Amino acid sequence: MSDKDSSTAKSYLDSAIAQGQSALGSLTGSTGDKAEAAARKNQAAAEKESSHSVGKLGPLNVSPSGGVSTDDPNRTEGSWNQTLGAAKESVGGLIGSESLKKEGSQQNAEGKGQEAQGQLSDFGSGVQDRVKGTVGGIAASVTGDREKEEEMRMKHDDAKTKQRSAEADIQKQAGA
Fold it and tell me: How far is residue 165's CA from residue 96's CA, in Å, rounded to a whole number?
């Protein structure tokens, strides 16, 4: 990971430094320290936000660090089944067909389960591959293998994108 990349851990460290700097400014009465602490706190919040952001276009996900991932097929298929199920429910309600409504409701529920299975798969493999990328990058750095180190950094960033995308979808559904 390069210094230019946003990171949740770095944002927490910057936030803690800002708290200490703010306390120091309060003790000494230094407005300069207080202002610097406020700026660092804002920077930490922006870093955290950036480290969690993911652009999404269909099943493709991209992060600010350059990581790219695709969704587990169950996420896409589950979402599609939910849409079809909801449409069947609506049409069944409009035309008075209880069997079509019931079929749509069942397909919608199955789609939710299928999408959740894909999200959990992406989350789990994202975490696992982030760890592999981090450990592999450290090992490559120690041995001086710059090519392997870059490969492991990319693996880490792609996995982080996959994980963050799944997290975002899970949180969106939890809030719905």
Answer: 39
Tokens matching residue 176? 């719905």
Give the whole-angstrom CA distance, residue 65 versus residue 2.
10
**b vs e for 129-165, b when ≥16 Cβ sit within 10 Å of the residue's Cβ?**
bbeebbebbeebeeeeeeeebeebbbbbbbbbbbbbb
Helices (H), 29-176: 31-52, 73-95, 98-143, 146-175
Q: Are 77 and 114 in contact (CB under 8 A)?
A: yes
pLDDT, one tens digit per residue, over 72-125 is 999 999 999 999 999 999 999 999 999 999 999 999 999 999 999 999 999 999
Please say whether the beta carbons of 67 and 77 come within 8 A.
no
Averaged pLDDT of the chain? 85
Ordered strands of the 55-57 beta sheet: 55-57, 60-62, 68-70
Burial (0-12, 13-18, 19+ Cβ within 10 Å), 174: exposed
Label the pairing between strands 68-70 and 55-57. Answer: unpaired
CB count within 10 Å of CB 114 equals: 21
